[in-house]
Amino acid sequence: TKAPIHVLILSSWRSGSSFIGQIFNHHPDVFYLFEPGHPIWMRFKKEAAELLHYPLRDLIHSLFTCDVTPLQQYVPGDGKYISSMSFFAESRALCSPPSCSHPSTSEGYERSKCSKHCRNSTFDKMAEACNTYDHRVMKTVRILDFSVLLPLFQDPALDLRIIHLVRDPRAIVSSRRSFSLDIDDQIVLKQHDKDTKGPVMAKICRAQVNIYRMVKAVGDYLERRYLLIRHEDLSMEPIVCTKKIYEFSGLKMTPDLERWIYNITHDLIKHPSRFLAFSKQSSKVIQKWRNTLDFNKVKEIEEYCREAMDLFGYLPVSSVSDQKNMSLDLVLSSVEMDDPSETNMK
């Protein structure tokens, strides 16, 4: 058997990471898990993100090697059935044999059927399923400090690759308004050091910058295992970006997958998952914040997130008319920001 490849998608809330997750989830060679850190954060709601990084890192490590026992400790209940994970049906592999052998699985992956028919699959079956795949992928928005992951790169059993997804902070704020993130925000903002004052968004932006900087600082070895993707590029060029993501992860694009990506980004199929609001993700959705946020709010975000915006190629607005002028592009093309490290690392 081939040595497995492990891919960790790092992002922050409302940045489109569920869509990248689904790009992997729909690939037949991938064992995908959605937000493995969720049960840890829900169990330790009073703790700070900085402390929860360590059990989360260890859990990710275990799951990459198909050891599910730590996960069983964190989920509510007796840890016997996968239905104790809130989002088990987000994973096609958990909804198919050998994890779930209900007859309905032969008709293809459907979340609602999986939620109903695969609830009583056991964690043992999950481990068995994991071992049959040579690509294991997880996505998390709950790692704000890249340094905790560095030990994973030392483990010869892991062939670890990081996909780092970023998005225009103004669009994130606009999107967060319609989504309740109170518990997560409380964990992110728990004060441990004096310089974490300021709102959640400031901390999230700082975390994205630090992830990027640390990869560059560690140098060549890590840079080869790191891919930066902007939500906006994925929205405008979904097929091109997906091919890049697959190639980086050692996967091949198939005609079926290409069709699925085209259909979902052109709103030709309905979204059974509340995490996959990716329809018509063209320039219209990218620009949505320009109509929903007032100018003062925009300037406030630009102030908190100036470094992230500079680094990842998002331009500030200088007036209300600039904000509302949709022909004015506020996202640098990826060519223009090809290697942001060149200008910003000095």
UniProtKB/TrEMBL annotation:
It comes from the Eukaryota. GO terms for biological process: N-acetylglucosamine metabolic process; sulfur compound metabolic process. Residues 5-313 form the Sulfotransferase domain. This is Sulfotransferase. InterPro entries: Gal/GlcNAc/GalNAc_ST, P-loop_NTPase, Sulfotransferase_dom. It comes from Eleutherodactylus coqui (Puerto Rican coqui). Pfam families: Sulfotransfer_1. One of its GO terms (molecular function) is N-acetylglucosamine 6-O-sulfotransferase activity. Its EC number is 2.8.2.-.
